[in-house]
From TrEMBL:
Source organism per UniProt: Streptomyces siderophoricus
Classification via Pfam families: Ferritin
InterPro entries: Bacterioferritin, Dps-like, Ferritin-like, Ferritin-like_diiron, Ferritin-like_SF, Ferritin_DPS_dom
Signal sequence range: none
Name of the protein this chain belongs to: Bacterioferritin
Cofactors that this protein relies on: heme b
Keyword Hydrolase assigned: no
Length: 181
């Protein structure tokens, strides 16, 4: 069995120090304030994505809208779950999740969209998913071993965002050219 880098008595003593920090110990290797800022940006992204998908769900119309709208609703629910997961991590790290509506779109990586055309809705959602994929990949790499728990949160989100992008690409492929007008 490998030896600990720090003896157990030292670890126990450190655990008693600054107990109010909860899970953030001396072993935490990331810039906590920057991590909280990045998490709040991701939170804004997920909230904006939830709102965009909800709008698209309610306003989708046309011959092919029923299955597309169902996909929008499913994605909206999953984006809300992402927001909840991020908010919980922010609180766990001792931060405050920023739900302020006046600045959501300014802090979000992905934009809001009010397209009326079904194909444009799908395209804009696919763009937003690709933005989230790129951002979350970069964030996970940036976090590295400095905060493995937050990195895993982003890796989990990333996997689902990739599924969303694949779903949306599939929808675009299934709508015939005549249904795009």
């Amino acid at each position: 069995m490998a030896d600990f880098l720090t003896d157990i008595e030292t670890i126990r003593a450190r655990a008693r120090q600054e107990i109010e920090k909860g899970p953030v110990t001396d072993a935490y290797g990331a810039d906590l304030e920057r991590v909280l800022q990045v998490l709040n940006e991701a939170l804004a992204t997920e909230i904006v994505c939830t709102l965009r998908y909800k709008r698209h769900y309610y306003t989708a119309s046309g011959l092919y809208s029923e299955p597309v709208a169902a996909e929008f609703l499913e994605h909206a629910a999953e984006e809300q779950q992402h927001a909840d997961k991020i908010a919980r991590r922010i609180v766990q790290l001792g931060g405050e999740p920023d739900f302020h509506p006046d600045t959501l779109t300014q802090r979000a990586h992905a934009g809001y969209d009010a397209s009326a055309d079904l194909v444009e809705m799908i395209r804009e959602d696919l763009v937003a998913e690709r933005v989230a994929i790129a951002a979350y990949t970069e964030i996970a790499q940036w976090l590295g071993d400095g905060d493995p728990t937050t990195r895993r949160v982003f890796e989990d989100l990333l996997a689902q965002e990739e599924e969303h992008a694949d779903d949306l690409r599939g929808l675009l492929e299934r709508i015939p050219q005549s249904g795009r007008a």
